[in-house]
Design goal:
The protein is an alpha/beta fold. The protein has 2 domains: 186 residues, no CATH class; 301 residues, Alkaline Phosphatase, subunit A (3-Layer(aba) Sandwich), CATH 3.40.720. The protein has 21 helices and 11 strands. The strands form 3 sheets. A 7-stranded mixed sheet has the order 3-10-7-2-6-4-5, sandwiched between helices. A two-stranded antiparallel ribbon has the order 1-11. Strands 8-9 form a two-stranded antiparallel sheet. A hairpin with a 5-residue loop joins strand 8 and strand 9. The radius of gyration is 26 Å and the shape is elongated. The structure holds zinc ion.
């Protein structure tokens, strides 16, 4: 009985799932690792034995969980990315282009392995016609479950801290997948049933600077995955911002704290009155407010229109931009061959076909993974920069730094377009990026400081300075202060000459 087909199948599955915790197990003393591995084996075996009483459902669900867990364990083991509800949101909102870029040979191999093993599991489970005995699984669970509960209850103790990363049901495969999918589903329903944000034009406001001799051009550039400490003007030893370094009217605020480590969560907060203290998105972007006060408005994006036509966090807050121009409106370049500089002629076109006061948002691709496809040859300064995985850190960082040089060139080219006008360009990144710190890469982990410390760089033209010396003084006054994404909405609105009345937001210029 012990070696029946059913018990062999379940034992194989239990071993596969236990093996997925290789990363935390390998970081423990051998005795602890052995204990945890045996714990996982017995726990999985017992749970699967119980589940197999509903064989028809289990034969479908368990292979699906195995598939997702293999993908999850690949991300966890090799990129230190833990599966979570946020990661699932990221996956469903990822464009085909972005997904294509993430498909490294190793990742494709992991997907293939997942398909083969989960198919095998499906046929294996279907053949388990003889239900397993319940006595041992139940007895085992009576012992094992209290251990897990106790570790969670006393999670501050060193022993619990050592063991929990491998065996707590919150972290162990496949339970972490179930937990993430459940949380994701709850949040997705909440998100879909949430009322649409109201127009920012409804905010109580008035024009502060009615008598500008020359109408203002305000450009807000949303950066992507740029971390403040890789900018030369913030003290990085490499020459990553050669052109900004030469600009006289550039103010850099060093590292400011991003609201989150994900685009979908950060961008809405950057452009709306939501703050760290009041994170609920109830109002759309400042563009509606600018329209109300006589600005012409535009939204230029490196994303394709298809992505924006669906109900996305950024679409919801975009507001009524008078012109919306997306990647596929002006180029046939796909995700992998697109560079931010391709938006420069579009910005130029918008500037030459509008007059009066203007507010323009430019949503860039910046330093999004994969870095080496984000810049053209003229910005390829640090080599070698061709990587296929994360094994050669130096190459990855070379490529990342080149993408910052491309951002430097992009911003300076925009400054050149409006240099002789009454103009202002605000640049801030949505979140940072991990570049191998503690073996972690990319973004999505809000606890990592390097994913939360982003650049805020404001440039103003000589004319702006001449017409608004008080505003420039207020901007200079904030350099060196501890700032966050919270300031972007009130500052942008203020710098556009609009005062917010009865507000608790961190305004730049008090009424
Ligand atoms: Zn982002």
């Amino acid at each position: 009985m012990l070696f029946s087909r059913t018990s062999v199948t379940l034992a194989l599955l239990a071993t596969a799932f236990a093996g997925m915790m290789y990363l935390p197990l390998s970081q423990m003393p051998p005795a602890y690792a052995a204990f945890c591995f045996v714990y996982l084996l017995l726990f999985h075996y017992s749970i699967f034995s119980l589940a197999l009483r509903l064989r028809k459902i289990t034969a479908i669900l368990l292979p699906i969980l195995l598939f997702l867990s293999i993908i999850g364990s690949y991300l966890y083991t090799f990129l230190n990315i833990k599966i979570s509800d946020n990661l699932l949101f990221l996956l469903i909102e990822t464009t085909a282009g972005e997904a294509g870029q993430a498909l490294t040979p190793a990742f494709i191999a992991a997907i293939l392995a997942a398909v083969i093993l989960s198919t095998g599991a499906y046929y294996g489970l279907k053949r388990c016609t003889q239900p397993p005995s319940l006595k041992w699984p139940i007895l085992l669970l009576i012992v094992l479950i209290p251990i897990n509960v106790a570790l969670s209850k006393f999670n501050k103790y060193p022993l619990a801290r050592q063991l929990r990363p491998a065996i707590a049901t919150k972290y162990a495969f496949p339970f972490c997948v179930i937990d993430s999918v459940a949380n994701f589903s709850i949040r997705w329903v909440q998100y879909k049933t949430r009322p649409k944000p109201q127009s920012s034009a409804l905010l109580s406001s008035e024009v502060m600077k009615p008598d500008q001799r020359e109408p203002l051009t305000l450009i807000f550039v949303i950066g992507e995955s740029a971390r403040a400490d890789h900018f030369q003007i913030n003290g990085y030893p490499r020459e990553t911002t050669p052109r900004l370094a030469k600009e006289e009217n550039v103010l850099t605020y060093g590292a400011i704290r991003s609201f989150a480590a994900l685009t979908r969560i950060s961008v809405p907060v950057m452009l709306t009155p939501a703050t760290t203290k009041h994170p609920k998105i109830t109002t759309n972007s400042f563009l509606d407010l600018f329209v109300k006060h006589g600005f012409s408005t535009a939204w230029i994006s490196a994303n394709s229109r298809a992505v924006y036509s669906s109900d996305m966090p950024t679409t919801r807050i975009m507001g009524n931009a008078q012109k919306t121009i997306f990647r596929n409106d002006f180029t046939t370049a796909d995700y992998s061959s697109f560079r931010d500089e391709m938006m420069l002629p579009v910005v130029k076109e918008v500037l030459s076909t509008t007059d009066g006061k203007r507010a323009i948002v430019v949503h860039t691709r910046g330093s999004h993974f994969q870095y080496h496809s984000k810049y053209s040859q003229k910005y390829r300064k640090f080599t070698p920069d061709k990587y296929s995985g994360y094994d050669n850190l130096k190459t990855v960082i070379n490529a990342y730094d080149n993408s910052i040089i491309a951002t430097d060139g992009f911003l300076a080219d925009i400054y050149d377009m409006v240099r002789n006008q009454n103009a202002l360009v605000i640049y801030c990144s949505d979140h940072g990026e991990s570049l191998g710190e503690d073996g972690i890469f990319m973004h999505g982990n809000k606890k990592r400081p390097e994913q939360r410390e982003v650049p805020l760089i404001i440039w103003y033209s000589d004319k702006y300075k001449q017409l608004n010396p008080d505003y420039v003084a207020a901007l200079k006054n904030q350099v060196g202060k501890a700032l966050s994404h919270d300031v972007l909405f009130p500052w942008t609105v203020n710098l556009g000459g609009i005062a917010l009345k009865n507000t608790s937001l961190p305004v730049l210029i008090p009424n």
